[in-house]
Design goal:
Strand order of the largest sheet: 1-2-4-3-5-6-9-10-12-13
Shape: globular
Strand content: 35-45%
Oligomer: single chain
Distance between the termini: 57 Å
Length: 705
């Protein structure tokens, strides 16, 4: 059912006519006379590395999977552009996906962006203008290849999803559609840097790991004798990246670059956004569906930062068929029926993943014809002295104080290793928070969207945070995390131009919690838990804080969704119990990840040690062995916010025969009430010989953080 190049161009001309009239692109297609089915599979060939020359002479390396007959019958190509080493680190994942996808009549291109993996040049930061410029050249190069029909799509998760948005906003003519997964539209509020304007541990975890990404050695089998020279250039050019990020504590031009939330109208091609309810990036999905004006679809599963076919937590999806439908629709001009289906599908969870992992999260798939949905209603529950109630009670004041070790049950902004990162029973932190409970529910209640809190409060300090955790409490007293929200209160009006609080002045604060699709069970209670602290996820405020919360004038708004009489159909096969089966087959699968708590000691200091080890992995087809790991030490003393210290070390090793390289990066963050102090280091070895070492030690002013 593949289209010829001429048929494709004719069909795309039809799309442009409809889009210019403001209609749906799908209307420009001829509806299939019978239900579209996956085409038969065909063979393909693999090009291990192809050099794509840039205008400045730098060569970028791309790995290609191309249908065997593509020179006679050109096909569209789908591009994934990331810095995570096509030759070794991501090789098994890339190969697994290509073997599923390419036989259905598409080429797949896996690009190492400039300065990463085997590509030449330097990688000096995230999402640079240079990266976008390069990708425009890569897309044009791909579209001109004799095996390509001229149509290019982009897919990718995390960095690759960011790239989809950022490159689409540049509107290269050959790029016809995108599929960003677990990505974001706002680099400041919804990436691993500042959450709600508050400084996160994840910025330092990711930054320490990212240093190893920026400086990893090219593979001599691809780069030849110059590999060592290129490697040393990368090492010598690496910047103090954590200090760079810490120098931008507000939503300034640095973070606005690459954030499509500044102008959704720049995206003018069909977009399919995919996310996971356990993923920290999930809010991008409903926002982009609501703000884009192009043909679009969205899917939110129960998983974390994973593709749907390798979902954890499960259940996952047999995803290749859905991507083939999407790319066939928009890259080949064949109506697969995908755009006649609901705009948004989500997994309505019946229990929190923490309760049941590694078994699949119980629930069902639901669908919405459009987003935001018309059928949803807002149920307002008031924060009264007696708990959550349908009507406001008398106003009263309750004081909550910053508690430096409050948050140990909600450590992770970015849950990756589910065995240690999923939030456990919240009851220990609830006992130290200001909590408001509903009465036991008389019937099941389902919500779909972002719960919102409106709180009337006063602060005794000019800089303070507000944290809300939305939990479900069982009759046995277990408290499970449904969603949460964070706001640096100096950012109450603007992330670009924060302003200090006036101590003693009353403010009405609006705070959004993360998107969720959740069923509160009959007989359970809804709990709102308020605190000023959430450590170690967030860096403490500069000085001890007291917040005065006014009950009777504060409320919670829940996006309630009617429960249907019958479940929606999902035209994608489920992959059930995948994680549980893998754990049973390999009980050591997650034993290399652990976290231990020491203290509180006699001084009230608590120390957490998180240890991650990736066991050496030998790649049979290249003979390369890769390994790595990290150690995190996070400590703080109760009553002293500036006793907080975060220390992280990441290392990575790559070897094959005489080619043996290792890099190690470290960081340490501490503070006073006025300044941050950030120490960074980078060391590299070739075999047993140290070939590079550099350290940085900088102090930066705190800017209402």
């Amino acid at each position: 059912m593949s289209a010829t190049r001429r048929e494709f161009l004719v069909s795309m001309a039809g799309y442009a006519t409809v889009l210019s009239a403001g209609g749906s692109t799908a209307q420009a297609m001829t509806s299939p006379q019978k239900k579209w089915q996956l085409p038969q599979k065909n063979s393909f060939r693999v090009i291990e590395n192809e050099w794509i020359p840039m205008k400045d002479g730098v060569r970028l390396g791309v790995r290609l999977w191309i249908p065997a007959d593509a020179e006679r019958k050109p096909v569209p190509v789908v591009l994934e552009a990331i810095p995570y080493r096509k030759r070794d680190l991501e090789r098994p994942r890339d190969e697994g996906w290509a073997q599923q996808f390419v036989p259905y009549g598409f080429a797949f291109a896996r690009l190492d962006i400039r300065g990463s993996g085997d590509s030449e040049g330097l990688l000096l930061d995230e999402y640079l203008q240079q990266e976008q410029d390069d990708t425009l050249e890569v897309i044009a190069w791909l579209a001109k290849q004799p095996w390509c029909s001229g149509a290019v799509g982009m897919r990718g998760i995390s960095w690759g999803g960011f790239a989809c948005f950022q490159v689409a906003a540049r509107q290269p003519p050959a790029l016809k559609a995108i599929m960003p997964q677990c990505a974001t539209d706002n680099r400041y509020t919804d990436d691993a840097h500042y959450v709600g304007g508050a400084l996160t541990l994840d910025m330092y975890d990711w930054g320490t790991e990212f240093k190893n990404v920026m400086v990893a050695s090219p593979d001599p089998a691809i780069s030849g004798p110059r590999w060592r020279e290129q490697w040393l250039q990368r090492l010598q050019a690496t910047p103090p990246i954590l200090a760079t990020w810490l120098a931008h504590q507000t939503y300034d031009a640095y973070w606005q670059h690459g954030s499509i939330a500044t102008d959704y109208g720049k995206i003018r091609i069909p977009t399919y956004v995919v996310g996971g309810q356990i993923d920290s990036y999930r809010d991008f999905l409903p926002r982009t569906l609501a703000n884009l004006k192009v043909p679009r679809k969205g899917l939110m599963g129960p998983w974390g930062h994973k593709y749907p076919d390798i979902a954890d937590p499960g259940p996952g999806l047999d995803w290749v068929g859905e991507e083939v439908r999407w790319w066939t629709q928009w890259l080949k001009g064949i109506d697969t029926g995908i755009m006649q289906e609901p705009m948004f599908r989500a997994y309505m969870e019946y229990q929190i993943a923490s309760e049941v992992w590694p078994t699949d999260t119980p629930g069902r798939w639901i669908s919405e014809a459009e987003w935001p949905p018309r059928a949803s209603t807002v149920r307002q529950l008031h924060l009264n002295d007696e708990g959550l109630a349908a009507r406001p009670g008398n106003e009263a004041v309750h004081v909550i104080k910053s508690q430096e070790t409050l948050g140990l049950t909600k450590r992770e902004w970015f849950p990756w290793n589910m065995s240690i990162d999923l939030p456990p029973d919240q009851a220990p932190d609830d006992l130290r928070s200001l909590c408001f409970d509903s009465t036991p529910l008389l019937e099941d209640l389902e919500i779909l969207g972002n719960p919102r809190l409106r709180v009337r409060l006063r602060s005794n300090q000019p800089v303070a945070k507000l944290v809300v955790r939305l939990n479900e409490v069982t009759p046995e007293g277990k408290s499970w995390s449904v969603s949460y929200g964070v706001l640096n209160l100096t950012h109450r009006d603007s992330h670009e131009k924060p302003s200090a609080l006036v101590p003693g002045q009353t403010y009405d604060i609006d705070l959004s919690c993360y998107f969720t699709a959740h069923r509160f069970k009959q007989g359970n209670r809804i709990r709102v838990a308020l605190s000023e602290s959430l450590w170690p996820l967030l860096w403490p405020s500069p000085r001890p804080v007291e917040l005065s919360i006014v009950t009777g004038a504060s409320s919670l708004s829940l996006p309630v969704r009617p429960i249907e009489a019958s479940a929606a159909t999902l035209p994608i096969a489920l992959l059930k119990d995948r994680v549980e089966k893998e754990m049973k087959a390999d009980p050591l699968l997650d034993s290399r990840y652990e976290i231990t708590q020491m203290g509180p000691d006699v001084h009230g200091r608590v120390t957490l040690h998180k240890r991650l080890r990736d066991l050496p992995e030998a790649l049979a087809d290249t003979g390369t062995t890769i390994s790595g790991g990290s150690d995190w030490y996070m400590s703080i003393q109760e009553g002293d916010p500036n006793s907080c210290v975060w220390q992280i070390e990441w290392w990575s090793a790559i070897s094959r025969g005489d080619w043996v390289t290792k890099t190690r990066s470290t960081m340490e963050l501490s503070s006073t009430a006025e300044q941050f102090r950030i120490k960074e280091s980078l060391t590299a070895w070739e075999g047993d010989q140290q070939v590079f070492h550099k350290a940085w030690d900088q102090a930066l002013q705190r800017e209402l953080v």
